[in-house]
Amino acid sequence: MGSESIMKVKAVPAITFYLSLMLTILVLLFGNEPNKSQYILVIATITVFYIAYITNKITSPASLLVISSFVFLGCRPLLSLFANYDYRIADWFIEGYMDDDVILANYAITLMYYGYTLGLILCKNTEKFYPHGPYPEKQLLKIKFLLTLFFLGSIGMVVKGIFFFNFIESNSYVDIYQSNITTPIGYDFLSYLFYCSFFLICAFHIQFRTNKKFLFIAICIAAFSTLKGSRSEAITFLLTVTCIYFNEVKTRNLRLLITMIFVFSVIFVISEFISMWRTGGGFFQLMQGNNPVINFVYGMGVSYLSIYQSVKLQLLSGGYNVTYLFSQLIITCSSIFNVKLSLPEISYSHLASYTANPELYNLGFGLGGSYLAESFLAFGLIGCFIIPFLLLLNLNVLEKYTKNKPIIYFVYYSVLPPILFTPRETLFYFFPYLVKSIFVAFLVTLYIQYKKD
């Protein structure tokens, strides 16, 4: 009965995917440019969101990756069809009106969505099929010890946030990168201690995953990271906390949808306050405009320009380059061994920024990157399907192992925030976090074995 019910559930998304592909082919064959690629992108967007809705919780890691990909990469062409926008007008780094290479950019995002869709269909991941197992009491780390680490880490987060706030107020946001500012000794360690202790608490003490006071305090402390002018760290942590909480709570997707609307409202307010602070504007200037929420979403979709730039670069070079997919691995290893690199030759975000607008790049600004752009440079359009498929499939498959293994739970959720940011970052953006998490997991495992003996 169990296997039959699973197959029945999977039949609906599979049929939906098939019909979506047929409709895409029809539009591709008989549709008219210049909007044909946009129509196909709309079909893929609706398909991936619908299948994510019926196969996963909205707050599952896989669903959150779909949402972040839409916000950072896919929202602009879609909003241009239904609102008063022209996504081909470049508004950051790239100047002027983007040419017909946007068609390939739209197809790249479409294939990303279909890669996600196939990953969702092949790996249905629900709590029903992967229930929690008991955690042996002797393996639990003492909660008093972990809360002490959490308290020390929280102090580090607050002090580090104030340090960056004072620096930006005295100088500017860009000066952080131009001056190669270094934080005082201990600040980075304490801030990592905050995240490390938080995920250890959630891993070994299940009741804290639904402790609203604890989670709220953690979110408030993480918000101090925005004082260095960056929103990504706080936003991805907020999404991860939402995922952790609702993975333990049985609720319908409709209620989760309402909850996510509230969460994104909070993200909207935080993001715009930080953005206005960095640029010296005011929050109420945004609210006085038309459709402030849509303007916010459209603004977040600036990474679309990074995809467009990758298309331009690939067409100009005429070849493929897989180096950029592994840039984070190369940069991490080079920093360990103190090897100097020419970043535009290794990092796609630096290459895109340098080639799109050298003047702004030399001033310390950046266009930003995307793992999808790296996938296009590495394997063309087929890479825009394969890499997203593998990313979401692994994200979904590995989550089920967190149900009964606290060590895996700790490592998985420690690297989830940077993974959710990969649509705007390099593919292995999570690698440094993974190395740290594995090292901590190794120490914890040794401690548990010691206590057993």
UniProtKB/TrEMBL annotation:
UniProtKB keywords: Membrane, Transmembrane, Transmembrane helix
Superkingdom of origin organism: Bacteria
Residues making up the signal peptide according to the UniProt record: none
Residue spans crossing the bilayer: 12-31, 37-55, 62-83, 103-123, 143-165, 185-206, 256-277, 289-307, 319-339, 376-395, 407-423, 429-448
Pfam families hit by this protein: O-ag_pol_Wzy
The keyword Cell membrane belongs to this UniProt entry's keyword annotation: no
Keyword Zinc-finger among record annotations: no
NCBIfam families from the UniProt entry: glyco_rpt_poly
Record protein name field: O-antigen polymerase
